[in-house]
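Sync notes, pocket subgroup
Present: LS, DG
LS reminded everyone that the earlier model was apo-only. Rerun requested with magnesium ion included. Inputs:
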Amino acid sequence: MSGTSLDGVDGVLAEFPADGSDTPVSTVATAYIPFPAPLREELMALQAPADNEIHREAMAANLLACHYADCVAQLTAHSGIAPAAICAVGAHGQTIRHRPEAGYTRQINNPSLLAELSGIDVIADFRSRDIAAGGQGAPLVPAFHQAIFGTADETRVVANIGGISNISVLDHGQKVIGFDTGPGNVLMDAWIARHLGGSFDAGGAWAAGGRVIPALLQTLLDEAFLKLAPPKSTGRDLFHLAWLENKLSGFASAAAQDVQATLTEFTAVTLATAIADHARAAQAVYVCGGGAYNAHLMHRLQHALAGQGHSAHVASTDALGVAPNHVEALAFAWLAHRHVERQAGNLPSVTGAKGLRILGALYPA
Ligand SMILES: Nc1ncnc2c1ncn2[C@@H]1O[C@H](COP(=O)(O)OP(=O)(O)O)[C@@H](O)[C@H]1O
Ligand SMILES: [Mg+2]
């Protein structure tokens, strides 16, 4: 898995029961390959129309496939399990456009090269079929969240705070609700990179030393996407540095650190509002994705929920036995397994698709 944050590749080697069922699933090995700066910059550049982009996209996809293959090689080396014993690799690819309203989404990848390099069947392009069936193609993780975290004992929200945030509402016996709530880390990452360098605000320490600017927060919250009813999904297509600069036009004298505090609050408040509006009954919110490591953000999320009169307790998915940085990679292993078993991977109640669909395409080893 490599997500909107453009930080790198998260990999897991997962084991499913021999009877073909999709739970329980156990993690056998994990690996993380950070993107080198030039690849990260090229992937960032390809998020918007660029010169000679067909060639550049293909070259970036080839390089990505090499990093995915390195990740797979680390997983086999760490576990001692030979490629021939592995059923499939689920490879999400790198999103450079997400335009469900125009009928497409683009996760660049070279699955043929990955199959060639790894010697393992590859399942890729998970989102396109859901869009072909009239859905958003996103989020796809709720079906997995329901399968591994759903329980009759507790009404739960799983909040995935990557570059963009999404929630899954797991209320036993009810259809799963899930949608993108808005930015996760994407604006905070861009802002700290511009002002202090570095790729993220570790622990949210910089934001924690600033003060939220209420008028700016309100300006950010006025974004139309946030008021849309689900199904909905978003990406860097909407939430990028130019979007932020536009919102900042009336706040020229704001201190950079106070803007960071406001961006962190923005992520917390948009998540809390989505949870208050769509998961009133939730007793707990389990956070995954890199945002779970931002202690200040976690604290502000708990505070924002209380501010909306919501009593749910915020914890990371560690409390459910899965480390926050492994959840999404495990989800794509699960989706690949669903493909192999010719089972649907989407939830029409989440994406808005016409029906259940088998997701992804197979590239044989
Ligand atoms: N220790 C940390 N403190 C604050 N933020 C963190 C920390 N570790 C990771 N993150 C955030 O998480 C992001 C990566 O999250 P990830 O779940 O991989 O997102 P994506 O799926 O978009 O790639 C980083 O860009 C950063 O913003
Ligand atoms: Mg990532």
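DG: The pocket of adenosine-5'-diphosphate (ligand 1) is lined by residues 3-5, 7, 162-163, 185, 189, 200-204, 289-291, 293-294, 328 (CB under 6 Å).
LS: The CA atoms of residues 180 and 234 lie 6 Å apart.
Action: DG to write up.
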